[in-house]
Description:
The chain has helices at 6-29, 46-49, 61-68, 81-84, 126-129, and strands at residues 88-92, 98-105, 111-118, 124-125, 137-138, 142-148, 154-162, 165-173. It is an alpha+beta fold. It has one domain (6-173).
Amino acid sequence: MxxxxxxxxxxxxxxxxxxxxxxxxxxxxxxxxxxxxxxPHAAETIESTGQILGLAIGDPxxxxxxxxxxxxxxxxxxxxxxxxxxxxxxWKLQETEFDWVMVWGNPExxxxxxxxxxxxxxxxxxxxxxxxxxxxxxxxxxxKWNLRRPGGxxxxxxxxxTEHRAQTVYMFSLDLPKEQDGPRDPEPDEKD
Length: 192
């Protein structure tokens, strides 16, 4: 008769489970290059291009103005002090899938955050934003990817909505000034 030590077997099972979970966490937290997305439609996703309406983290704010000013709905918004200094710019848009877009910039005039609100009839399934299988986290209400532009900054892409469909899409830089403690997700209604 073979004597089995149940404590030893239980400990071995826990080690196997922990090792698998640790490997999954490491895979999901590691930034990937946007062009490395494995989806068959990767070329069409925000994840694969690293862009919202042609704008990417690290691009000059002047590029955002050049691309989005022609799409702005005239006379619906009066710029505030932060917009006049170029720290944050809001565009109410026409003729795009996005109802509005906001861009935040750093003191060097580079884009550090982009947030777009899709028109209600234009909500996108998360898999059209990026490959959900490579997402660091994916639930029915949000999907998050940690990415890096080739030769560029690390950033997070987030799709938020309901029932695996995005209403809001945003990207923000994970490259931080030395005096900051660490990255954080911007609040959904944050405007500065």
